[in-house]
Design a protein that fits this description.
Elements lengths: L1 E2 L11 H7 L3 H13 L3 E10 L2 E9 L7 E6 L9 H12 L2 E6 L20 H14 L5 E6 L1 H16 L3 E7 L5 H10 L2 H21 L8 H4 L3 H12 L5 H8 L13 E6 L19 E6 L16 H15 L1
Parallel strand pairs: 1-9, 4-5, 4-6, 6-7, 7-8, 8-9
Antiparallel strand pairs: 2-3, 3-5
Length: 329
């Protein structure tokens, strides 16, 4: 473990304030501003997720620039490619000469219409296939990837699967990754009610959009949408996955313990010791290979790491720094 060089002003040292501000309008506007100032042109990509799955992504590149590398960015649960941290990270990577692709997971952003099946966190195969598609579209560029929260979990699993799948991934960065989903669920349920409210509101809204597009999802009725977050997750597992139990599902995307011990792709991980969603205690027994580093910040909340009133973030600059350094060698 390494101490991260993040020192917020005193008024920004509350983990709950950090976590709430992370998805605030201030941050959203800051992300829009930074990406616009980059001068990059952005276009839509529809990527091949395998087995007929289509995933949307947004490709950004500064005209006339000579690309130094290719960066794939993954958002958190019920975030999107347009989330503030995604745009801010894209802007930081563009500053360093990278081509950037921001991926939307299935049913995130405005993509509910692309696939009939409902998103769940064990759909790693389609993300690996989409990453392979991105690599094919931009051959010859050193490929790196980064993710936040659930996206941080996905990017580490992507790195685990990349060599066997032929994805030429050279390095990944992960911010506040979901380590043990069962413990994260407990943390949301036992923590301040705002976290349960935030995630459940976003998820049920997404499920309503999905139901409207695919009427065959009649089992997703209003009584289901009124369930608490654990019961709703159990409904998802029983009706829309091949797992027998909720714990089996959690185990399916857990990266705790020794699950990343065989990781071949170098990785940098940033975690806040005061994260109210992902307890820091779960990181104590984490087994990582020598080419993976874990940096710990005393403050930061859940994917916050905010530095000032403008909403600038340490984590977005940290991601760009780690990935650019990896490509530069």
């Amino acid at each position: 473990m390494i101490a991260a060089e993040y020192q917020p002003p005193r008024w920004l040292r509350s983990p709950h304030l950090q976590s709430m501000l992370a998805s605030s309008r201030v941050r959203l506007r800051r992300g829009e501003q930074l990406l616009a100032r980059s001068g990059a042109l952005t276009r839509e990509l529809i990527l091949d997720g395998g087995d007929g799955v289509r995933l949307q992504a947004w490709h950004s590149q500064v005209p006339g620039s000579t690309p130094q590398g290719l960066a794939l960015l993954l958002h958190g649960w019920e975030g999107s490619a347009e989330s503030s941290y995604m745009r801010m990270t894209a802007a930081r990577m563009l500053e360093r000469g990278f081509v950037v692709v921001r991926l939307n997971f299935r049913d995130h952003g405005n993509t509910h219409h692309l696939n009939p099946g409902i998103f769940h966190s064990c759909r790693i195969g389609e993300v690996v296939n989409a990453a392979a598609d991105v690599a094919r579209r931009f051959p010859g560029l050193p490929m790196v990837a980064a993710g936040y929260s659930l996206g941080g979990n996905f990017v580490l699993r992507l790195a685990l699967h990349a060599p066997a799948a032929g994805v030429p991934l050279q390095h990944v960065a992960s911010v506040c990754p979901v380590l043990d989903p069962a413990i994260t669920m407990d943390s949301i349920e036992r923590g301040p009610v705002m976290y349960d409210w935030y995630f459940r509101r976003k998820w049920t809204g997404s499920l309503r959009r999905k139901r409207a597009l695919f009427p065959e999802l009649a089992d997703c009725d209003d009584s289901v949408l009124k369930l608490d977050i654990r019961a709703l997750t159990d409904w998802l597992v029983q009706r829309h996955t091949d797992f027998n139990t909720l714990q089996d599902y959690f185990d399916g995307y857990s990266i705790a313990g020794s699950k990343l011990a065989a990781l071949q792709v170098p990785a940098d991980i940033l975690m806040a010791a005061d994260d109210p969603v992902i307890p820091f205690t779960t990181f104590h027994d984490w087994q990582l290979p020598a080419h993976a580093s874990l940096q710990i910040a005393r403050w930061g909340g859940h994917c916050g790491f905010i530095e000032n009133l403008r909403g600038d973030g340490f984590s977005e600059r940290w991601v760009a720094q780690q990935l650019a350094a990896a490509v530069a060698g």
